[in-house]
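Reviewer comment 2.1 asked that we show a complete input and output for one of the modelled complexes. We chose the flavin-adenine dinucleotide case, as it is the one discussed in the main text.
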Amino acid sequence: MDDERKTCRIRHETARRRTLTVAEKVQLTPAYLSIRFTCADFGDFSSASPDDHIKLFMPGAPAGGGKPPMRDYTPRLFDEASGTFVIDFALHEDPGPATAWAIAAKPGDTVEIGGPRGSVVISDAFAAYWLIGDESALPAIQRRLEEWPDKQIHVLAAVSGAEEELALQLGANHRVQWVHRPAHEAASSTGLLAALEASFRADSETFVWIAAEAGVTKDLREAVLATGHPLSQIKASGYWTWGQADTTAKFE
Ligand SMILES: Cc1cc2nc3c(=O)[nH]c(=O)nc-3n(C[C@H](O)[C@H](O)[C@H](O)COP(=O)(O)OP(=O)(O)OC[C@H]3O[C@@H](n4cnc5c(N)ncnc54)[C@H](O)[C@@H]3O)c2cc1C
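Response of the prediction step:
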């Protein structure tokens, strides 16, 4: 592979925590909540890739003792000049501490974040990109579309119905294909696989990014590889795992 097409890993020395203060809650869809925070402490904050994640530390000690829970979220938008930081929350069934906190949060509430500790930067030298995911991946997908307004990007995304299709900011070369499946079938890869198999062809000029429930990610990655698409041109992550709290999965 050409050097300019290599995926590059960057480490940030920004492990320290920052405090975010809730400024505004915007219900983007019935199950999608965007929270705009103010942050007076951007300092050395750095997020080099749209699929970076921060750790969100839930306030307060847990009832049974131990460390406060933390969960991974995408820095959807951040602007040091205006002190703005946005995190978008997919409101799922069986909400854990992060989702419960977001639902209950009110202006003035504070929460701490840490990171991103690193970034995996996908080369911008490919002719085309496929971004495939579920609700948890939409913040990273939206950020990617906004950061690459002129690139050829095909988004394939699963949500529970037409009312959950987010209004994405699309450039002239961006295409979006929505797949609908009920929320209780979020761990089923059937719809995404059918859409992928109908329209994706292996291509040495294309990079494929996948983020969804871990089992769905695994199935999609295998389906992409089965087309003969090069492994080095796939990045696949399990953003959560059906029936398990605080679980992510990496596929190298
Ligand atoms: C790199 C990265 C970036 C991420 N960015 C975002 C983001 O910007 N926005 C976002 O909403 N999520 C994002 N996620 C996913 C998020 O971290 C998980 O969904 C997390 O489990 C939510 O925490 P919780 O406290 O709500 O639920 P947990 O306590 O972790 O889990 C409780 C229950 O809910 C289920 N569950 C968890 N997430 C989902 C889901 N999305 N849909 C259906 N059921 C679920 C679990 O299987 C479990 O049964 C990201 C994950 C990663 C790895």
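The domain at 9-118 is CATH 2.40.30.10 (Elongation Factor Tu (Ef-tu); domain 3). We note this here for comparison with the apo prediction described in Section 3.2.
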